[in-house]
Fold each of these.
Amino acid sequence: MTDSETTRPITVVGVSGSPTHPSRTTALVAAATDAFADALGGTASVIELAPLLSGLGAGAFRSQLGDEVTAALEKVESADVVVVGSPAYRATYTGLFKLFFDQIGQYSLVGKPIVLTATGGSDRHALLVEHQMRPLFGFFQSLTLPLGIFAGEGDFEDYRIVSDDLTARISTSVTRALPLLRSHLGIGPETEQPSFARPDAF
């Protein structure tokens, strides 16, 4: 990263793979995106994929997609940190989520920090983060951050986060990732070393 790059605001972009609006997944992605942006002194924005569904289905190739979809793809590719989230649907992330990332450049996320989040009807879906989402971003050679964030239906009310436990999990994910992110983005003290997750983080 060059000196000029370190002086611009860090961009944290969230991607919600929920096919509906309003959405618990979008609420979780937005909360995590804001938390990481605040900790890094950066800017936060969230892309909801639900409005892009028809545009993503316009063609099999990126060149066939419209300006709105192309702009969303480019925003993710140029972000410093990406927060991704999907509801659990038939044991994995939504087809909409996969359709969007099928159009991301194969090497556009290499080394990019990715925060993994997911929502589900019960804690039985929590392994979606580790068993489905982490391998997808392993394909992209991304830097998936150690602690994913899962939320169940009980963590929300009227599509708002009401669970102190979920808020604490988001905070823990940020705290544990912050030294690694600062080192990776070149914005932290030179003596600061990355801190990885311990068992008590879960």
Note: Residues 84 and 102 are 14 Å apart (CA to CA).
Amino acid sequence: MRLALLLAAACLGLTGCATIKGWFAPSTPPAGAEQPEQRPRRVAPPPTLSPGTSSPRRAAPPRLGTPAPAPPPAPVEAPPVLSPVLSAVDEQKLRAEAQQRINGAEQRLRQVDPAKLASSQQDSLQTVQSFLDKAREALQTHDVQRAFTLADKAYLLADELARRPR
């Protein structure tokens, strides 16, 4: 009984999607096997009739060795900056607040002695300086929202560094 059950299971297993022939045939040719060279086939264009003639005239065959001319590259443009539209008054206020945050962060950094900082605090100090540089760049490019965000981050990190026990 067991033997019949095992034989039936084996037969069912062999009747799946794969064939036994596929198990033994190599899927890729061996590394040293030579591949036949594939050449592009030339197809002759259909004959065309010129106006006023009765015999077909063949067009010149296309050249096979010459590549097709590449299309000109599309001009690369910087993506537009997505920021809220602010009125002139709101933009001026935000610019002033960003500048205050930059000045406050610089003042906090003057209170910190870099020689007394631990390595993690040194990393925070470099991050603050990076935020300040980027905030100044954003102000120069008139991206006041980004400038304020970066200046605020710099201010908060600088304040944390200045408050830590030395």
Note: Helices lie at 2-14, 20-24, 88-110, 119-140, 144-163.
